[in-house]
Design a protein that fits this description.
This protein is an alpha+beta fold. It has one helix at residues 2-19, and strands at residues 25-27, 49-51.
Length: 65
């Protein structure tokens, strides 16, 4: 009986965790093509994104690439 109980718990938690996604970010575009840029010219790009997960998405420590 005890083995059945542990087996049932294991199946229940694996089923539950498979549906819990958490935060997940989705970008509209991952690359911005700015073409040829002269040296010492400032270039900016806009990245649109949204949270497609089921939990709150927190973004911190953003660094330029």
């Amino acid at each position: 009986m005890r083995k059945f109980f542990y087996f049932f718990l294991m199946i229940f938690f694996s089923f539950f965790l498979s549906y819990a996604k958490g935060p997940e970010i989705s970008f509209e575009k991952k690359v911005v093509d700015v073409g040829k840029v002269p040296v010492h010219t400032k270039v900016t790009g806009i990245f649109k994104f949204k949270n497609v997960g089921d939990k709150k998405l927190i973004i911190f420590m953003v660094k330029p690439g």
